[in-house]
Every structure is written in C-alpha cells, then in structure tokens.
C-alpha cells in the first residue's frame, strides 16, 4: 500500500509517498508505527488520517491497495 | 468548468458566478480569500499552497452539499488555488446562489470556517526575512 505525505511532513521526509507492505489486519496505527520506525525523526503528532480520500480513525483497517494519507493540520482558505 | 476545483491557475470570479446563477434567485454572494502581506503582524513576502488535490475537491463538494442542506441555498461553487501566490492574489473563491441574501451570507461564512478545518490544503508562509513556515490551524 501507499502512504502519502504533505506539507511539512513531506519536506521532513524529503519525498511525497512511501510504498510499504503490512500484515493483513494492519490498521492506520500499525502503519504509523512502521513509519515511525523507518523515519524516527518525522513529526507524527497532531495528524488526521484518510484512507482512499476519506477521513478515518486510527483503528481503521488497511487493505493492500489502499492509499493512506497522513494529514497535518490544514490551513487552506 | 468544475464547481469544486483545486487548480494552479489564476482564479476567475465570472465563471463561478455563471455556474451558480439562477433566474429564480435574488442573491449571488461571491467571496474571495486573498493572500495577505502579513500573518499575525509578521511580514510575508509570498504564499505557497499545497493540496491533496483529489481529496480536497471531494471535501469541497461535500461541504457544498452540506451547506445546501443546512442553509437552504441554491448552487455552490468553490475554487482553491495552489502553488505560489503573490500578495493580493486570490487563494479561494466561493460563489453561492440563493433565493435570499441572508442564507447565502451565513453559508459563505460557514463554508470558509469548514474549509480551514477539514479540506486538505496547506499554506506555507514565505516570510519577508527569507525563512518559511507551514501554518497549521487545527
């Protein structure tokens, strides 16, 4: 599955997405833990989460082809 | 012209006005959010916006539907610009058609508040001193 990064998070990672493989019953929280292990210096607090462009809670389940987006505090308008 | 759009192009009010116009309506409200030369008093050189464009357009459309249900207004169109914006350029444009003005004024205020809460778009302040900062308002 794909994890997308935006704004300050994208800059901190120096790339806009990661492809990762997760276990079948993985949740958003599992994915976050993996990102934190791979990139310990990323600021992963205060985020919202979207799977396939819909906001979801931290315990939402991920499927292999899902697109997970880590959404820092928004500031449009 | 899409009613709900995230674009790198300069925003134009007239096509949005045409999208929401209706012969049975007595009001069209157009709101422009404009790049300002300071944030909390600190001088800004220019702004940069980034979006998760596919999701942002979906969220804008959802907010448009919610505003129609909540305020009883007619058509809604919202365009948001991304990329580099100079001071004075329009960042967001909202057009609302409505039978009466009161509902449209209330809806546009509500829509701007919601955009700043849930639409995945981010603003980077490029300060006059050369540094930069992503602004978060949640």
From TrEMBL, chain A:
GO terms for molecular function: nucleotide binding. CDD domains: Ubl_MoaD. Keywords: Nucleotide-binding. One of its GO terms (cellular component) is molybdopterin adenylyltransferase complex. InterPro entries: Beta-grasp_dom_sf, MOCS2A, Mopterin_synth/thiamin_S_b, ThiS/MoaD-like. One of its GO terms (biological process) is Mo-molybdopterin cofactor biosynthetic process. Belongs to the MoaD family. This is Molybdopterin synthase sulfur carrier subunit. It comes from Herpetosiphon geysericola.
From TrEMBL, chain B:
It holds the Pfam family MoaE. One of its GO terms (biological process) is Mo-molybdopterin cofactor biosynthetic process. This is Molybdenum cofactor biosynthesis protein MoaE. PANTHER family: MOLYBDOPTERIN SYNTHASE RELATED.
């Amino acid at each position: 599955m794909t994890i997308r990064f935006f704004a300050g998070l994208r800059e901190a990672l120096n790339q806009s997405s990661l492809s990762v493989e997760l276990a079948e019953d993985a949740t958003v929280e599992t994915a976050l833990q993996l990102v934190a292990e791979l990139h310990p210096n990323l600021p992963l607090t205060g985020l919202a989460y979207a799977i396939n462009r819909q906001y979801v809670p931290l315990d939402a389940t991920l499927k292999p082809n899902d697109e997970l987006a880590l959404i820092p505090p928004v500031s449009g308008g | 012209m899409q009613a709900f759009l995230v674009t790198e192009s300069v925003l134009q009010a007239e096509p949005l006005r045409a999208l929401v116009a209706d012969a049975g309506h007595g009001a069209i409200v157009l709101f422009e959010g404009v790049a300002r030369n300071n944030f909390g008093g600190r001088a800004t050189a220019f702004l940069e916006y980034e979006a998760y464009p596919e999701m942002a357009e979906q969220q804008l459309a959802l907010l448009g539907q919610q505003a129609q249900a909540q305020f009883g207004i007619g058509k809604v169109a919202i365009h948001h610009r991304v990329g580099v914006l100079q001071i004075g350029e329009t960042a967001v444009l909202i057009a609302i058609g409505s039978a009466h003005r009161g509902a449209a004024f209330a809806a546009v205020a509500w829509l701007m508040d919601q955009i700043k809460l849930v639409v995945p778009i981010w603003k980077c302040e490029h300060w006059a001193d050369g540094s930069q900062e992503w602004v978060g308002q949640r």
